[in-house]
Amino acid sequence: MKNHIISDWARNITPSLTLAIDSKAKALKASGEDVCNFSSGEPDFDTPDFIKEACIRAIREGKTKYIDSSGLLELRKAVAEKASCENKILSLTEKNVVISAGAKYSCYLAILATCQPGCEVLIPSPFWLSYPEMVKLSGATPKFIETSIESGFKITASQLKKAITPQTRMLILNNPSNPTGIVYTRRELEDLVEVAIASNILILSDEIYENLVYDDAQHVSPASFSEEARNQIITISGFSKTFAMTGWRLGTLIANETLAKAVGNIQSHTTSNATTFVQYGALSCYTQKDEATSFLKKMRQIFDERRQLLMNGLQNLPYFECIPTKGAFYLFPKITASGMTSSAFANKLLDEAKIAVVPGLAFGNDQHIRFSYATSQETIEKALKRMRICLQ
Ligand SMILES: Cc1ncc(COP(=O)(O)O)c(C=O)c1O
């Protein structure tokens, strides 16, 4: 195939660094090795039965046709009500909500609906690796705001102010964060939102890990702060991480009506609607509240126990520098004391201890590696023992 057949958009995309380590880990596993996998970005729990049953019921009842491209009306209403009651984002109706095939696609649609060539999009670094690629696909330019372990991986209002130019269209905030696991406080978010509103820029607030916060951390939605905030903030969430539904592909977007309509229009010409019966499954998360709440509580508690086990374990090993993080299911220790790059360190762990982690370089920071504790307590204990030997 001649090179010019590939578009500039496609050529411009950075291949996923996580895939290289993932395929190496899979090959090792296939050859019979006992690999401890910390590279997964999804809960290792099964989707709860009550959600599966609701989906199966919908299929049996023939709910298998096209629906409104912005999503199932009952689900959009339920999402609006949940966001009003729990996230305190007021005055919402179904017109503010779009349901898409995964939070990833919700983010992409939000960026496509608001950004274009000539625009700059601010992304705190380290970042979830899809953001810069989505921004590039819109023709806009990603601009990074650096954070470090010393600054708790958080950007400040003054950093944001300095980074804004006349071309800035949007700030992407991921809270709780992948890959760092940090959670912003209400005060920190209020300061950032104040700057964004004063500078008239949008915030894409990716809250996909909103239900996974631990210790004294509280999840706060910045769109709840004021009417202006509601107007300028696009809130993304979904079912993948909250209800262990990654393969179902279902995400939610909340925005002002004009923006939600623009997003719905793009979706109508790309995927039409997210799968109809899958949306009925998701609806049960709101109509069967008791089951949903008890699943969430159990999953959160198990993640919390693993978080503490892994964090304490890493702190007692050579090379790892950790800060206590209170969200999502990731730890992002610094490994510069080892003298290795993040890829070399990840390869050493895989080759010598059969432990798969993701090099920080994939998230824009070569001084760290990412552990996902979406894996069993037994695997964590085994990996800690292996690292004690491998990192002597
Ligand atoms: C920060 C962040 N946003 C969005 C997503 C995508 O979620 P979904 O599976 O619903 O597309 C992920 C998944 O890893 C994520 O880490």
Could you list some keywords that capture this structure?
Aspartate Aminotransferase, domain 2, binds pyridoxal-5'-phosphate, 392 residues, alpha/beta, 3-stranded antiparallel β-sheet
What does this structure look like?
The protein has 392 residues and is of the alpha/beta class. The chain folds into 2 domains: 3-46 and 292-390, Aspartate Aminotransferase, domain 1 (Alpha-Beta Complex), CATH 3.90.1150; 49-288, Type I PLP-dependent aspartate aminotransferase-like (Major domain) (Aspartate Aminotransferase, domain 2, 3-Layer(aba) Sandwich). The chain is 43% helix and 13% strand. The chain has helices spanning 8-11, 17-30, 49-60, 73-85, 103-114, 130-137, 157-163, 186-198, 227-232, 257-270, 276-287, 289-315, 342-353, 377-390, and strands at residues 36-37, 97-100, 120-125, 141-146, 168-174, 202-206, 233-238, 251-254, 330-331, 355-356, 358-359, 369-372. Strands 2-8-7-6-5-3-4 form a 7-stranded mixed beta sheet, sandwiched between helices. Strands 9-12-11 form a 3-stranded antiparallel beta sheet. Strand 3 (120-125), helix 6 and strand 4 (141-146) form a beta-alpha-beta unit. The termini are far apart. 47% of the residues are buried. Bound molecules: pyridoxal-5'-phosphate. The site of pyridoxal-5'-phosphate has 13 residues, from helix 5. Pyridoxal-5'-phosphate binds at residues 41, 102-104, 128, 174, 178, 206, 208, 238, 240, 246, 251.
